[in-house]
Amino acid sequence: MAVDPLDYEKCLAAAKAHGWQITQVLNTHEHFDHTGGNPAVIAATGAKLLAHANAKNTISGIDRGLKAGDLIKIGSTVEMETLDTPGHTMSHVCLLSHTETPALFCGDTLFNAGAGNCHNGGHPEELYDTFAHQLAQLDDNTLIYPGHDYLSNNLEFTLDREPDNERASSLLIDVRDQDPNAALVSTLGLEKEINTFFRLHSPSVIARLRDAFPDLPEQPDARTVFLKLRQLRNSW
Ligand SMILES: [Zn+2]
Ligand SMILES: [Zn+2]
Predict the structure, then answer these.
(1) What string of DSSP letters covers 145-160?
(2) For residue 63, how far is its CA from the centre of ligand 1 (angstroms)?
(3) Which residues is 105 bridged to in the sheet?
(4) Which SS3 state, helix, strand or coil, does residue 15 take?
(5) What distance in angstroms lies between residue 145's CA and the mean position of ligand 2's atoms?
(6) What is the pLDDT of residues 167-221, one digit of tens each?
(7) What is the 3-state secondary structure (H, E, C) of 80-145?
(8) How many Cβ atoms sit within 10 Å of the Cβ of residue 181?
(9) Rounded to two decimals, what is the model's pTM?
């Protein structure tokens, strides 16, 4: 399976080098930087195209429309579960592998140390629900494979919001000049330490937030903190 294979030459070359046959292309959502390689990969392999069932008008040529809980077989051993994860767009899926160490392919919903924006067809309220009720519930050892590498920049945002986050500051030193071809793969447990959007109860996050929003309640609920952080990130 090729997930969001925009760089189709790289995907086809990687498959060839490993002796893999690409039989499925999965789009996490409808944005062009995720779908733009579909025609070339499908032309080269005859792969079937999978995406959120509600993306049928925004992604052309879907062979299999996905809904929450749908299982996808890859080869003879790997099974992936579809999570319906609105927020970045309203037709966004993440895939969770049913493997000994679970892996999450999360498109533009969850980034390393960050969350997707909602400017192009999304809604922050739904993004909060996806984070709180789906992603945060996964096992801490889940490996995180986002659609883009924004780790360093996002860690800067974490530290802007939570200057005393020592895990984030030491990680930033480690990854600032990392080789993109050997990038850190984080886990959900690590994200809970370094990703502001999972740190909604942190006293220092809330204290800093009050500087920007003086009318913040004494003990703001997690949804309010998330929405304010998402708002600040838009202009950060
Ligand atoms: Zn996107
Ligand atoms: Zn993207």
Answers:
(1) EESS--HHHHHHHHHH
(2) 21
(3) 95, 145
(4) helix
(5) 13
(6) 999 999 999 989 988 999 999 999 999 999 999 999 999 999 999 999 999 899 9
(7) EEEEECCCCCCCCEEEEECCCCCEEEEECCEECCEECCCCCCCCHHHHHHHHHHCHHHCCCCCEEE
(8) 5
(9) 0.96
